[in-house]
Amino acid sequence: MDSYEKLIQKAKKDKLKHANEGPKVIKKAINSSKWKLLFSTLTVLLIIVPTCYMLTYMYYAFGTKSTTLMDVASKTLYITEPNTTLEEMEFDMDFSLFSMNLSFEAYKQIGEEFYPSKTYDLQFILNKLVKKETNSKLEKIYPKYPTETNQWLAHPKQQVEFYSKKEWRVLSGLPDETVVEAYISLIDLYSVEEVINEMENIDVSWAAIYTGLEDTMLSKEGNVISPIGYPVQPDSTLWSPFRDSISHEETFLNMLKEIERYEEIAEGVSSHKNLELEERIRYIEQNGFKTYGVVVTGPKTKIASLEDSNIVRYMKLGEVKLWNLGR
């Protein structure tokens, strides 16, 4: 075989060899690209996710958003949930990607003691409330979807669905060794001071304030509104916005103005979905503070005596506990 033929044979062998190795080279290149893409993706994720968490913490912590949202939630309950108080140490915050979970417990005064009434679990994405879960610990539960006529506190012109005489009979049948919470609707509008003077030896814990809409409990758009009011008794709880308050009325009005900027969040937190704060603030500023109903607590016999009061129209019985008074 001459040199030319040897060269031809070698070329044919090289061509066959490259033909067999071609798919292997391509497959190797594809696998290499996949691994490079995977490592690149992981690298990006390892950079982005911690950065997002850091931004979340900065948004809520350094931007004081967490404090603001907690403030709005707590103040909303003070003014929309009768006879409710909160404890600062009960607030539990948990942060996740672009969101904050806020959990806390509310209390009710019955007699001289405060009892857990409801737990709240709220989830915010940035500053928007996206989820609310509640767990009531009460025996008596306020209507989940109040209408114009099933409110527990009624304006003098308004009718109610419950039968007040039956409520008085149930109260009279309780043992004398009990303390109770009662929702008292009045026959007219009064100052809170007038009501306190009328109800001697009974703790008036919360007063519903008339804002021009409670005659029908409907807004101008026809939406059912919530009663709003404020705690009457001095409150030494560190977290309470009424702690060391010189005028609970003025503190209440200032709270309404603060919450107005976050009314959508407040309506999500509250059991009632329409607050109509702008209109109600304007009414209070022009007409002052009058109450059409209060929440009271005290010995069963003292509360029962209110049936003969000249200013009491309706009574709705709330929580009942064994005697816990020191007097």
Please characterize this protein's 3D structure.
It is a single chain. This protein has 327 residues and is of the alpha+beta class. The protein is built from eight helices and ten strands. The strands form two sheets. Strands 1, 2, 3, 4 and 5 form a five-stranded antiparallel sheet that branches. Strands 8-7-9-6-10 form a five-stranded antiparallel sheet. The chain starts with a helix and ends in a 5-residue tail after the last strand.
Write the layout of secondary structure elements.
Elements: H1 3-62, H2 65-80, E1 85-86, E2 92-96, E3 99-110, E4 113-125, E5 128-136, H3 164-172, E6 178-190, H4 192-198, E7 203-209, E8 229-231, H5 248-260, H6 263-269, H7 277-287, E9 291-299, H8 300-304, E10 312-322
Antiparallel strand pairs: 1-3, 2-3, 3-4, 4-5, 6-9, 6-10, 7-8, 7-9
Helix pairs in contact: 2-5, 2-6, 5-7
Offer a concise description of the structure.
The chain is an alpha+beta fold and about 325 residues long.
Percentage of residues assigned to helices? 25-40%
Query: What is the helix tally?
Result: 8
Largest sheet: 5 strands, antiparallel
Secondary-structure element order, as H and E?
HHEEEEEHEHEEHHHEHE
Distance between the termini: 127 Å
User: In total, how many beta strands?
Assistant: 10
Strand content: 25-35%
Which structural class best describes the helix and strand composition? Answer: alpha+beta
Shape: elongated
Name the quaternary structure. Answer: single chain
Gyration radius from CA atoms, angstroms:
33 Å
**Mean residue pLDDT:** 84
* Poorly predicted sequence stretches spanning 5 or more consecutive residues: none
